[in-house]
Amino acid sequence: MGRSPCCDKVGLKKGPWTPEEDQKLMAYIEEHGHGSWRSLPTKAGLQRCGKSCRLRWTNYLRPDIKRGKFSLQEEQTIIQLHALLGNRWSAIATHLPKRTDNEIKNYWNTHLKKRLAKMGIDPVTHKPKNEALPSSVDGQYKSAAKLSHMAQWESARLEAEARLVRESKLLRSHSFSQGCSSSASGFSPVSTFMAPGQILGSKISGDNLESPTSILTFSESIPPVMSAANTAENPKKQTIEFVGSSDQQGGGNIIKEEGHYQTIEFVLMQQEAEGLGFTELLLDSSGEQSLSEGGNGGAGDSDNGGENGGRTDHHEDNKNYWNSILNLVNSSPAGSPLF
DNA sequence: AAACTGACCAACCGCTTCCTG
DNA sequence: TCAGGAAGCGGTTGGTCAGTT
């Protein structure tokens, strides 16, 4: 595209931020908001480029950032979401409140990726490294298909969320107010994972805005992301309803394709029937056994009595893969290296 | 005590996407 | 519809520090 680097101007400082610079930036944003990042440094009296200011603010100075070690649940969430979404750090970060995409990315690269690699799991594909990719094993395909559907769904949903946020900004700026068809339960139509009202890391309070392209309607608010405990202890009725027409992207992937709709509906019905949360559904990719069932999943899981003793086909491998991830995180205190 | 090594993470770079005129 | 600017995003780099030799 040939865009000129924003930090090329002479006199602009690079490198680590000093406490004084931090102070200036925070003071300015607290008073004026960030506004245009490009013009901010001049106004705030900083010898930095706008990009650097934005990064410093979003990754470090923002008051709603949680720093420090990742909890067990956060690790679990990252691994699961990475399996679904790949390196879409910002998308993953939307499900980890108070964590930045940069922090998650760093944590993945320095901790989680290595753990998976040492387990013999390809951190990119989340498959055992020695597993031949083409496989005709029925169960594996089913699992893969299910995951794939969920990934598509999640991907489309994220795009819809982004669009919704943009629309909400637009609506606000035009003082446009319109009745919202979302249920009075306080459900924010944007997320199956986030806390109600929390959109892409920011809060939209009060007004439940409706996406013109797709609406996910849940009978109740969905518990925060990947809260296995929440979903397991408190399985809630979840129904999905797509309303309206699709546009050219995002949610259209789902709404246009009847088959996907039905798949999602089916999966959620199944989930509901089994009392499983999304986490369990994901982890229990074979659909045969819930990982959250206490303690059976240890190293001895593969010789779990009964089925075809000693058989290690792809189906089994696939199932055990997700078991192993959860066992890994569960058996390892957060922050203590396993290997 | 010094040199070396590896882990960690803040910050940068450059590409992509979005927005606006 | 298009071009250019602004912001977002993910990959990568480089500085710092702790542990080891």
UniProtKB/TrEMBL annotation:
Residues 287-318 are annotated as: Disordered. GO terms for biological process: cell morphogenesis; regulation of cutin biosynthetic process. SUPFAM superfamilies: Homeodomain-like. GO terms for cellular component: nucleus. SMART domains: SANT (SM00717). It comes from the Eukaryota. It is found in: Nucleus. Keywords: Developmental protein, DNA-binding, Nucleus, Repeat, Transcription, Transcription regulation. Pfam families: Myb_DNA-binding. CDD domains: SANT. This is Uncharacterized protein. It comes from Trapa incisa. The lineage of its organism: Eukaryota, Viridiplantae, Streptophyta, Embryophyta, Tracheophyta.
